[in-house]
Design brief:
five-stranded mixed beta sheet, four-stranded mixed beta sheet, alpha/beta, 11 strands
Amino acid sequence: MGSVYVALLGAAGHDVWAIDSWAAHVDAMRTNGLRLEGASGDRTVKVNASTRAADAGVCDLVIIATKAMHVEQAAESAKPLLGPSTMVLSIQNGLGGPDTAAKVVGRERVMVGVVGGFGAGGAGFASVSVITLPPQAEREHSRTKRRMGEIVLNIVHANQSPL
Protein backbone atom coordinates (compact mmCIF):
# COMPACT_ATOMS: atom_id res chain seq x y z
CA MET A 1 0.00 0.00 0.00
CA GLY A 2 2.77 2.43 0.85
CA SER A 3 4.21 2.25 -2.65
CA VAL A 4 0.86 3.30 -4.12
CA TYR A 5 0.75 6.40 -1.90
CA VAL A 6 4.38 7.23 -2.72
CA ALA A 7 3.77 6.92 -6.47
CA LEU A 8 0.51 8.89 -6.51
CA LEU A 9 1.78 11.68 -4.28
CA GLY A 10 5.08 11.82 -6.18
CA ALA A 11 3.29 11.92 -9.55
CA ALA A 12 1.19 14.82 -8.22
CA GLY A 13 4.40 16.80 -7.63
CA HIS A 14 4.81 16.40 -3.86
CA ASP A 15 8.21 15.91 -2.23
CA VAL A 16 7.82 12.28 -1.13
CA TRP A 17 10.11 9.83 0.60
CA ALA A 18 9.64 6.06 0.58
CA ILE A 19 11.10 4.57 3.76
CA ASP A 20 11.27 0.79 3.60
CA SER A 21 13.30 -1.93 5.30
CA TRP A 22 13.31 -3.94 2.04
CA ALA A 23 16.70 -2.86 0.62
CA ALA A 24 16.10 -4.35 -2.85
CA HIS A 25 12.90 -2.30 -3.18
CA VAL A 26 14.66 0.89 -2.07
CA ASP A 27 17.53 0.23 -4.51
CA ALA A 28 15.06 -0.39 -7.37
CA MET A 29 13.21 2.86 -6.61
CA ARG A 30 16.46 4.83 -6.46
CA THR A 31 17.73 3.34 -9.72
CA ASN A 32 14.59 3.07 -11.86
CA GLY A 33 11.90 5.05 -10.05
CA LEU A 34 8.70 3.50 -8.72
CA ARG A 35 6.39 1.93 -11.28
CA LEU A 36 2.64 2.10 -10.55
CA GLU A 37 0.11 0.21 -12.62
CA GLY A 38 -3.65 0.52 -12.28
CA ALA A 39 -6.97 1.70 -13.65
CA SER A 40 -5.51 5.17 -14.36
CA GLY A 41 -2.62 3.75 -16.39
CA ASP A 42 0.97 2.67 -16.00
CA ARG A 43 3.58 5.19 -14.87
CA THR A 44 7.06 5.33 -13.38
CA VAL A 45 7.73 8.06 -10.83
CA LYS A 46 11.11 9.26 -9.56
CA VAL A 47 10.99 9.26 -5.76
CA ASN A 48 13.34 9.64 -2.83
CA ALA A 49 13.90 6.28 -1.14
CA SER A 50 15.86 5.08 1.88
CA THR A 51 16.01 2.34 4.47
CA ARG A 52 16.65 5.01 7.14
CA ALA A 53 13.83 7.37 8.14
CA ALA A 54 16.27 10.01 9.38
CA ASP A 55 17.43 10.56 5.77
CA ALA A 56 14.13 12.31 5.00
CA GLY A 57 14.26 14.84 7.83
CA VAL A 58 11.16 16.36 9.45
CA CYS A 59 7.96 15.90 7.40
CA ASP A 60 4.52 17.53 7.30
CA LEU A 61 2.78 14.15 7.03
CA VAL A 62 3.97 10.63 7.81
CA ILE A 63 1.94 7.77 6.34
CA ILE A 64 2.32 4.44 8.10
CA ALA A 65 1.18 1.90 5.52
CA THR A 66 2.44 -1.41 6.86
CA LYS A 67 0.92 -4.68 7.93
CA ALA A 68 -0.81 -4.18 11.30
CA MET A 69 1.82 -6.33 13.03
CA HIS A 70 4.58 -3.89 11.96
CA VAL A 71 2.92 -0.60 12.99
CA GLU A 72 4.74 -0.24 16.31
CA GLN A 73 8.16 -0.72 14.69
CA ALA A 74 7.24 1.67 11.85
CA ALA A 75 6.00 4.32 14.30
CA GLU A 76 9.19 4.03 16.37
CA SER A 77 11.36 4.38 13.25
CA ALA A 78 9.28 7.39 12.12
CA LYS A 79 10.13 9.47 15.22
CA PRO A 80 12.99 11.35 13.44
CA LEU A 81 10.37 12.53 10.88
CA LEU A 82 8.19 14.23 13.49
CA GLY A 83 8.20 17.97 13.97
CA PRO A 84 5.88 20.02 16.21
CA SER A 85 2.97 19.92 13.72
CA THR A 86 3.63 16.64 11.89
CA MET A 87 0.53 14.45 11.51
CA VAL A 88 0.70 10.65 11.21
CA LEU A 89 -1.79 8.83 8.97
CA SER A 90 -2.07 5.19 10.03
CA ILE A 91 -3.59 3.18 7.23
CA GLN A 92 -3.62 -0.62 7.30
CA ASN A 93 -5.81 -3.42 6.03
CA GLY A 94 -5.97 -4.85 9.55
CA LEU A 95 -7.27 -3.74 12.94
CA GLY A 96 -5.51 -1.91 15.76
CA GLY A 97 -2.85 -0.02 13.79
CA PRO A 98 -3.97 3.52 14.69
CA ASP A 99 -4.15 2.72 18.41
CA THR A 100 -0.68 1.17 18.25
CA ALA A 101 0.72 4.19 16.40
CA ALA A 102 -0.93 6.55 18.91
CA LYS A 103 0.83 4.81 21.81
CA VAL A 104 4.18 5.57 20.14
CA VAL A 105 3.73 9.03 18.58
CA GLY A 106 0.83 10.46 20.61
CA ARG A 107 -2.91 10.26 19.96
CA GLU A 108 -3.10 13.97 19.05
CA ARG A 109 -0.96 13.33 15.92
CA VAL A 110 -2.74 10.25 14.58
CA MET A 111 -5.31 10.16 11.78
CA VAL A 112 -7.00 6.95 10.63
CA GLY A 113 -7.39 5.95 6.96
CA VAL A 114 -9.47 3.12 5.50
CA VAL A 115 -8.78 1.71 2.02
CA GLY A 116 -8.35 -1.55 0.14
CA GLY A 117 -7.81 -3.01 -3.32
CA PHE A 118 -4.11 -2.59 -4.00
CA GLY A 119 -0.68 -3.96 -3.18
CA ALA A 120 2.92 -4.60 -4.09
CA GLY A 121 3.99 -6.38 -7.25
CA GLY A 122 7.73 -6.76 -6.57
CA ALA A 123 10.76 -4.55 -6.04
CA GLY A 124 10.07 -1.10 -7.48
CA PHE A 125 6.49 -1.95 -8.53
CA ALA A 126 2.97 -1.47 -7.11
CA SER A 127 -0.52 -1.94 -8.52
CA VAL A 128 -4.00 -0.55 -7.94
CA SER A 129 -7.08 -2.54 -8.90
CA VAL A 130 -10.35 -1.41 -7.35
CA ILE A 131 -10.42 0.66 -4.20
CA THR A 132 -13.48 0.07 -2.07
CA LEU A 133 -14.51 1.71 1.15
CA PRO A 134 -16.65 0.06 3.81
CA PRO A 135 -20.13 1.62 4.25
CA GLN A 136 -19.14 3.53 7.40
CA ALA A 137 -16.28 5.20 5.51
CA GLU A 138 -18.80 6.72 3.09
CA ARG A 139 -20.33 8.80 5.89
CA GLU A 140 -19.06 12.32 6.42
CA HIS A 141 -19.55 12.00 10.19
CA SER A 142 -16.55 13.80 11.84
CA ARG A 143 -14.29 13.02 8.88
CA THR A 144 -11.97 15.08 6.75
CA LYS A 145 -12.07 14.03 3.12
CA ARG A 146 -8.80 14.36 1.18
CA ARG A 147 -8.06 13.52 -2.46
CA MET A 148 -4.68 11.93 -3.24
CA GLY A 149 -4.29 11.20 -6.95
CA GLU A 150 -7.14 8.88 -7.83
CA ILE A 151 -7.58 7.72 -4.22
CA VAL A 152 -10.04 9.39 -1.87
CA LEU A 153 -9.05 8.84 1.75
CA ASN A 154 -11.57 9.29 4.52
CA ILE A 155 -9.53 10.36 7.52
CA VAL A 156 -10.71 10.10 11.11
CA HIS A 157 -8.75 11.71 13.92
CA ALA A 158 -7.90 9.02 16.46
CA ASN A 159 -9.75 10.80 19.27
CA GLN A 160 -13.02 10.72 17.29
CA SER A 161 -15.33 7.80 16.73
CA PRO A 162 -15.01 6.29 13.23
CA LEU A 163 -18.72 5.40 13.20
